[in-house]
Specification:
Layout: E1 17-18, H1 21-31, E2 39-42, H2 50-54, E3 60-64, H3 67-75, E4 81-85, E5 100-105, H4 111-119, E6 125-133, H5 134-141, H6 151-157, E7 160-168, E8 173-174, E9 181-188, H7 197-207, H8 215-218, H9 241-252
Parallel strand pairs: 2-3, 2-5, 3-4, 5-6
Antiparallel strand pairs: 1-8, 6-9, 7-9
Helix pairs in contact: 5-6, 7-9
The chain binds S-adenosylmethionine.
Length: 255
């Protein structure tokens, strides 16, 4: 176990620091960094992942919102660590040399918005390895027909290969979160079949807005059965990713 430092964890920044060396080693093995990789870490915190990564790569950039943690990270005096103070949700990835590999033990309260933000930058990304709440990781990787298959599953799987790698128990952190966590590995699909992303997002969002209603009901302000061959008397959770893509294209054709 890593000895916790004196920084007092801030709940509002979702601070649960990894202290379990076995888990840290497993995450580093999953990332498998190569010396020349262009790594970007979101939320380095006290450096639980940052320090072992810095030993393996020429350079690592990190975005951290908490100024106290930035002081602590700066004090490590690592010449190959480039720290950016700011909010990962509004951070412009264009300032990094693509292609980048994104990693991080994400603040759980904003993990989904961070994923949606990165979705818009997927053309610059090789892969992403994240720690998230287990429940979120399960929703991201859920298959159609499952109760937890929803907007997050469709939006992620339409653009990325999504793999849940392993589960991490609460006691691996200080302070311990109330829930289990999981490591998820995302790689942008080489061939993405989605047409216009804005139309796709609109259809997926509307389709899952009322899970108990049929697609006919959920999508009535967007398209009706005469506009598509997809059977709209089903519920959204029954549609696989390709069917959602077809549905969004049928909607797009009307514009
Ligand atoms: N990587 C460290 C670890 O594994 O111990 C810390 C992980 S902790 C779950 C999340 C980290 O993200 C914290 O350091 C927190 O300050 C930072 N953070 C929270 N919100 C952020 C945001 N909007 N942008 C950038 N960093 C943020």
């Amino acid at each position: 176990m890593i000895t916790p430092t004196k920084h007092k964890a801030r709940k509002r920044f979702g601070q649960n620091f990894l202290t379990d060396q076995t888990i840290i080693d497993k995450i580093i093995t999953t990332i498998a960094p190569k010396q020349t990789d262009n790594l970007l870490e979101i939320g380095p915190g006290q450096g639980a992942l940052t320090l072992p990564l810095l030993e393996r790569v020429d350079q690592l950039s990190a975005i951290e919102i908490d100024r106290d943690l930035i002081k602590l990270l700066t004090a490590y005096n690592k010449p190959n660590l480039i720290i950016h103070q700011g909010d990962a949700l509004s951070f412009d990835l264009a300032q990094f040399n693509p292609p980048i590999r994104v990693v991080g033990n994400l603040p759980y309260n904003i993990s989904s918005p961070i994923l949606f933000h990165l979705l818009n930058h997927r053309d610059k990304i090789i892969d992403m390895t994240f720690m998230l709440q287990k429940e979120v990781a399960e929703r991201m990787s859920a298959a159609h027909g499952s109760k937890i298959y929803g907007r997050l599953s469709v939006m992620m799987q339409a653009f990325f290969k999504v793999e849940l790698i392993f589960i991490v128990p609460p006691e691996s952190f200080d302070p311990a979160p109330k829930v289990d966590s999981a490591i998820i590995y995302l790689t942008p699909l080489k061939v993405c079949k989605v047409g216009n992303i804005a139309y796709f997002e609109q259809v997926v969002k509307a389709a899952f807005a009322h899970r108990r209603k049929t697609l006919r009901n959920c999508l009535k302000s967007l398209l009706t059965q005469e506009h598509t061959q997809i059977n709209l008397s089903q519920r959204a959770e029954m549609l696989d990713i390709d069917t959602f893509i077809t549905l969004a294209k049928d909607y797009e054709k009307q514009h």
